[in-house]
Amino acid sequence: MKEPHSLTNRAQYTLVYRQGKVWANSLLVMKAMPNGLSLSRHGFAVTKKVGKAVQRNRVKRVL
Questions:
Q1: Beta carbons within 8 Å of 59's beta carbon, 6+ residues apart
Q2: Are 44 and 13 in contact (CB under 8 A)?
Q3: pTM for the whole thing?
Q4: What are 6-54's pLDDT values in tens digits?
Q5: Which pLDDT value is given to residue 5?
């Protein structure tokens, strides 16, 4: 089931990747930008370096 506050399409992710502010450490890179809404929205992208799809999906569920 999709959460109502998640990013839903490629254009939304691309906008955050291009215009968002970046915070990073050795384990995580976080990009964020204001959305002008009264609620916060989120999305998780896990690189293929983590493993196959089953492992990446588990990481997203845990986050």
A1: 44, 46, 50
A2: no
A3: 0.75
A4: 888 999 999 999 999 999 998 889 999 999 989 889 999 999 999 999 9
A5: 85
Q: Distance (Å, rounded) from C-alpha 34 to C-alpha 40?
A: 9
Do residues 32 and 48 make contact, with C-beta atoms less than 8 angstroms apart?
A: no
Give 5-62 as a 3 state SS string: CECCCHHHHHHHHHHCEEEECCCCEEEECCCCCCCCCECCCCCCCCCCHHHHHHHHHH
* Assigned token pair, 46: 């896990």
In sequence order, the 6+-apart residues with CB closer than 8 A to the CB of 44 are 59, 60, 63
Q: What is the CB neighbour count within 10 angstroms for residue 13?
A: 16
